[in-house]
Amino acid sequence: MTEHPSNSARIRVRPTNAFEAFPRSALEGTLVDRFEERVRRHPRRAAIIDAGRLLSFAELDREANRVANALLRVSGPVQGPVGLCFPQGWRSLVATIGVLKAGAAYVPFDHRLEPDRLRGLAASLGIVALIADAERAAAFEGVVPVPVIDADAIDAPGTSPDRSTGPGDPAYVFITSGSTGPAKGVVDTHRNVLHNVLRYTNSLHICGSDRLSLIQAPSFSATVSTTFCGLLNGATLLPFDLDREGAHALPRWLAERDATMFHSVPALFRHLLTADEPLDRLRVIRLEGDRATQGDIEGFQRRFGRGCILVNGLGATECGLIRQFFVDHRVQVPAGPVPIGEAVDDMEVMLLDSQRRRVNDGEVGEIVVRSSFLALGYHGRPDLTAAVFSAAPDQPGLRDYRTGDLGRFGADGILEFLGRVHDQPRLAGVPIDLAAVETALEALPGVDQAAALIYEPSVGAASLVAYLVPAATLPSSADMRALLAARLPSDHVPHAFVPMDRLPRTVNGKLDRGALPDPPRTRPHGAPPAARAGTLLEHELVAIWEEVLSTRPIGVRDHFVDLGGTSLQAFEILQRVERMLERSVRPSVLLDGATIERLAASLQNDVAVLDGVLLPAEGGGEAGPLFFLHGDYLSGGTYCLRLARALGPGRPLHVLPPVLRGEAGEPLSYEAMAGRHLVALRKARPRGPYLLAGNCNGGIVALEVARLLVRDGERVELLAVITASMLNRRWSTRYGPIGLAGAVMRRGPVARFDHFRAWVLRWDSRTGPERGRALLGAIHRTIARRTPKAVGRPAEDPFKASRHVLRTADRDYRPRPYEGRVVVLWPREDPEFAQAPRWWDGMAREVDFRPLPGNHVTCIIEHVDALAFELRACLEGAAARGLDK
């Protein structure tokens, strides 16, 4: 079978100790055959060391024979699976081998089950007997309708019974779900379990001198690999009762037992990282069953020496081990999900999309395993079996198993685990990769562990919530949101952050996402209330905000955005305020009322929005003002309030709204717009130096304002433009003369004329203004007469009219090089991000291109903190030169 290639240049980490390879010939026998062969070879070697008992291989064999004979005595030739109910320990292991020696398959039940629940599971799986310790045997006697054997009161011979078990017969039934409703039990054979032992033995070099920790409860399927890898290789098992001893006791117990191999979920492994006990004997640490983190890898490399290897693996009850990733002190694991690694023998891994087609490298798909060593299926559930198991097309003898896990292949063939298919919920229709969110959260300063959840208290009110276990003092919610915005798509940034003492775990240490609490109706983490309500109106507004935002307490100077407010919630607040006042409220009240204090003042005074070209926003201090052309001709630049707050109180921000038409209503060019803004700017600050910034078309106008100031002998110490695309230069840079015709002909008539005009104006700038403009004027008049609706007639709708003015300004604009320095800020998710540096190249004496998170819209709305960070850096650079005065 084929397997994804791997990069041979990468450091190859493998154990180097001597061992006896597990032979393929053993696959034609049974688990009991291999175990008894070990008994004959090493009868006196320690098989199990428990807190109160040491059993050699010979003693374990004798005790297992007694269980087998007792079982055969009460049920005759076993015709079905046999239930086991024990906590972790030597008794559970003896009973497991005993059932196999009787020729039956074992079913390990959770020893914490209530009797009624156990009765239902036993009936659904059709067990023919139940073996338990004395305490549980007494509790279950008469509850389950099958014989109950007290393992502590067995009086049966210790000789090996006759049996007729083959390699294809069932060895166990493991319950993988069924906490409510019918159980789902995976049935697997002796041959498949033996092959799983082969995979582990030969990759980890398991040998007779190894001492393997056995930590999870017997009902957890991960115990299969440890149990049989130990006993079938003549090694020693070290059972640990996690319920009785507690995870905090693990490090000392491992040191006292001289354990050489440790196997657990990552959450239990983390208890080893901060302990003082020497763990020098550990040579292999296996992490499986849950998602490992970058912190786990870094902690391992700090804590353990050169002689220890960490193996991050992926497996399932239905197929055993399928991938392993080896790490030692030399391996550099890239940022992102910790890989689950390389191929193992006879287990092909494919990543398929919903149409059952293989995905490309770097794409996410469902992990599907193809092998001849897959489980038989689900006990008594042919429907469930057929849903995930199927014959491999055109490959007789092989079957496919759909794991329900999501994965992604890197370029070197290394597989990344990205969570369960059904654990990937949607938020506003967008699939959310919870594993990616959690990885980014755990990379934040002060975060030890993290979990993410889509919280939906009611239909249409879903939000992404982060649950954090601190390693130190957590940053504020606003700071964490800003840091995550640079690492994640905007829709993957959590709306709320909930600190917790610990994350809920299942009994076996996995994250129990279903047990995460609802986010509390409290303030954002790290943000104390900003002033209390002082007037009756403020009290009423606080009540509205707290109910709509599900957050309390709220202060009158708390900002709407910092409280996690959305546009839908803003609309709901306006509706409730209107009902409270029994009159309509101007939508622009949001511009005035980003805090309750300002909203109350605006409602009381009913002050109209400023109509002038200069709109002062928040900020103060002695620093020179930043003049900002917001470029938002649709909604008035309301985002500028957030920007002003993010810049901080020491920086005055003056917002210049778009001026699209002259005094007579005529459309203005960008040069003419700049002239109008220059007048207002001079009134606010007669002399330089000047600090300028602009967004979108406002960035182009800011460039022209800077050009005018330099012409007048003034100094412009900062010119920053955000997503400012110069159309004419964009076309000339992208297409050149050869590709222009084809690009133009692929568009409609209006677009063709617009792009033709852009090209002609560029040519016009080289040959003289009269020829190009005369040609365009003639063509425009001809087209306008024949197709008046196609070109040149602005619509009456204000939005369309504004758009027409800006489109005309774009097409007529002839960009010229600027003599100063320009900082170009561009969002990574914008489709033109990769081309933008080429468009601005040569447009100024110096161009400093800097990326922003988000897209054209979200970079100034959702990621305003990141934008403010970049602008502050630019402003601080000017101040450091002593020019910001």
Present the secondary structure layout:
Layout: H1 31-41, E1 46-50, E2 53-56, H2 57-75, E3 82-85, H3 90-101, E4 106-108, H4 115-125, E5 129-132, H5 134-140, E6 148-150, E7 170-177, E8 184-189, H6 190-204, E9 211-214, H7 223-231, E10 236-239, H8 242-245, H9 250-257, E11 261-264, H10 266-273, E12 284-287, H11 294-303, E13 309-316, E14 320-327, E15 339-343, E16 348-352, E17 364-371, E18 377-378, H12 382-388, E19 389-391, E20 399-409, E21 415-420, E22 426-427, E23 430-431, H13 434-442, E24 447-455, E25 463-470, H14 477-485, E26 496-499, H15 536-549, H16 567-581, H17 589-592, H18 596-605, E27 615-616, E28 626-629, H19 639-647, E29 653-656, H20 670-684, E30 690-695, H21 697-711, E31 716-722, H22 727-734, H23 736-745, H24 749-767, H25 769-786, H26 798-812, E32 818-827, H27 836-840, E33 844-852, H28 864-880
Quick structural overview:
About 35% of the residues lie in helices and about 20% in strands.
Q: What does this 3D model show about the protein?
A:
It is a single chain. This protein is an alpha/beta fold and 885 residues long. The chain is 35% helix and 20% strand. It has 28 helices and 33 strands. The strands form 8 sheets. Strands 11, 12, 13, 14, 15, 16, 17, 19, 20 and 21 form a 10-stranded mixed sheet that branches. It has a 7-stranded mixed sheet with strand order 27-29-28-30-31-32-33, with helices on both faces. Helix 7 links the parallel strand 9 and strand 10.
